[in-house]
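Write out the bound-state structure for zinc ion.
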Amino acid sequence: MDKKKIFICGISTECCSYSTLIQDENDFEILSDKKLLKYIDFNYSKYKNITFMPSKFYRSLPGGPVDKKFFLKIIQNIINDLKKHTSIDGILFLMHGAMYVKSINDPEGFFIKKIRSKVSKNCKISLSYDLHGHMTDTIIKNIDYFAAYKTAPHIDVKQTYSRSIKMLINGILKNKKNHIIWEKIPVLVSGEMSSTIVEPCKKIYKNLNIFNKLKGINDCNLLIGYVWADTNRATASAIVNCTDVKIGKRICKKIALSYWNNRFKLVYDMKSYNLNKVFHLINKKKFTILADSGDNPTAGGVGSRIDVLEHVFKNKIENTLFAGIYNKEIFRELKNKKNKIVIKDSISKKKIFISIDKFYLKNDNAIVISNNNTVIFTKYRKPFHYLSDFRELNINLKKYKILIVKSGYLSPELKKLKADNFMILTDGFVTQDFKRIKNLFREKPIFPFQKNFRYNIAI
Ligand SMILES: [Zn+2]
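---
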């Protein structure tokens, strides 16, 4: 038997509609060839009659809209790779699902459809997604299999890739038909309100695995969506791969209803307060982690805001570590070796002056010590989610009373520190205060933007 060929490509980012940070080639990392296969980490050798053909996978930290020219160039680059091969049997797409490109309504749908049009009708398509992505009819029409993460924070990325590849391989080798059923759910909340390590999502997601065992069902999914996308397609959805359409439809509605019926229980996993209040609640004897949520770069914030920094310095709070603040200008300021530097944030238009007691540079970071506080300035947008991020900069967390990270829910490693923790409801492009975010293009009604309406779905 001839070996079957699976082509692998994709683009993955999450775009806050109103962020001024336009993403282009400087923001994306490209994984290709062996590097891409290694990243996916699938047990390739088990499938001797399949050849995997890695093209390019573009990924970036969430931010603002993707530059349209760059987006179109990516598609062309992938099509050029595709042209090098004849008779592709399957394509694996690695996507996030909440991309935004101005004047392209459904960028993932556009991307998949364009590439789909270059292969034969018999070629099977499998799509791997983040659970914060959005589904559309165009996407459903152009794919054969679908798998999304089932954990947030995401700890099942590789397992999700594996689910999508296995469905694809089974489809190619056994030619078994898979149907994808989907239902929109008029709910759109933040990841911070829908973590799968707490209820109600913990149970809802656990149930997906129970449904997967039913005869006629292949793989069940629930997408939460991305609340800072002010687009028509931004909504939650239930998506079921099945061989039995009747049972698939029933289970899909069941999943949709289980999320809808719990909508009022979707609340923050952390105690959450505004900036002024939170510092009064800190137990000074304990180590505390504060999450500056409105400027969280992993949700699409810029990461440059200085609201919390300003508050700490104004109120003479000490023993605080800021990890980190994205600010390229600081590196120039520090070069001039002044005793005082100005920190400006172009987004909030705020500026403050701080004295420099000591500073050092390491791995594109500037670590500045001022008034018994340490501020890590970063040359590139960067979250501090791992303990190694601190170790690499010779920073000992035990020396501090307060750690401030630009984040929503705490990363699994920071959570393990078992520190007191609060989420600060700060301003920023990804503010958790939904009353402050523009709502021009989302479908109406949608919870929690509208609260009193019925969801017309019946099992
Ligand atoms: Zn996500």
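---
The mean pLDDT is 96.
The chain has two domains: 4-265, 271-431.
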